[in-house]
Amino acid sequence: MNNSKRIDSLDSIRGLAAISVVIFHCLVSFPIFYAAQEHKDYDNLFVKIMANTPLHTIWAGPEAVLLFFILSGFVLSLPFLNGKKIIYKNYLIKRFCRIYIPYLVIISISTIAVITLADFRNFDGLSEQFNNRWDHPVTFGAILTYIFMLESDYANVNGVAWSLVHEMRISIFFPLLILFIMKNKWLKSLIYSLVVCGVMAVGCKVLSMMIPNELGSFVATSIGNTFYYCIFFIFGALLAKHRHEIMTVIQPISFGRKLSLLAIAVLLYNFKWLVYDLFLVKFSKNALVSFGFDTINDIVASIGIVILLSVVLSSSKLDAFLNRKILVWFGKISYSLYLIHVIVIMLSAYYISAIVPMPVAIALVPFIALPVAHLSYKYIELPAISLGRKLTAKKNVTTKESAERVG
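The structure corresponding to this sequence follows.
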């Protein structure tokens, strides 16, 4: 496998994960699936099978976000690990254009939709999570928080944007992380990074519980969340650094054993739903204890993700499968799909449900969201990426010309 194909195969996985997020938000729009997601009591055998078996992979939305973070850590590490000269300013400009500009355009569209279309009604027969969207007017303060990515009141306009706040923040100091990882052995890098991020995350969590001021508590929680999600970027960076050693181990084994590893990865990915959650999480109402349980679940799911990515990188058959055109296309539009699908859900509930029953309107969302995401990718993402390249290319030329004049 060549490097481009490896990246395409990983992008395909990102695309499939994005589709699982879309399915997740469609399903939890209904009270029965929302009850399953929130670990509340419900009596429906089909939903229990969908929630507490490996079939949960189909709608494992929160786990998919962890996969996005790990993949980001992996991909961002590659230029550093390959010895490419990185100019920090150019790195930031490209990252800003890649993440922030599409985010700002879509969050603006979401905000305009709420302002112009929402009547702030509750839909009978839909879940609390669904009805938390478009349920109050957008304030000027909220718009400022969207512009500056302050992780506030996103649920009202486009709830998925919260993860991009942490993606952008971590991107700012990621070069320091990867330089530390590059200079140290994997175990030292892992332990030191996890300890620092873990201590900061827990410290901010405790601090948020002690601060009486609502704004101060919110800021402490948000910063703590950024340190927490940084852990998953570290997993991706370590996988990128040691991918060749891992591939050396996995490549020689039979394809059947590789499939067995994939099965283990799926089980770990759904660990929270198969084992741990059923026995422990639902009995804890203490915030810190629940945070500890959730952290264990996330770490185990991340181990599953790392195994999954390792097997894909080590298997030419899986690589060939994931390089099918439709899957590569899913990967290309995954960011746009992630950003726009909530808008599609809301518009479907408001307008398509007037023509067909609400369950049908929600079921149509993935089929509508995919072509809309393609348009977003073509007319928002690609121009933003191109802008980043042009800005950094211009700066590189200017820097070179200045150096020549000085010489």
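Confidence is low (pLDDT under 50) at residues 1-6, 401-407.
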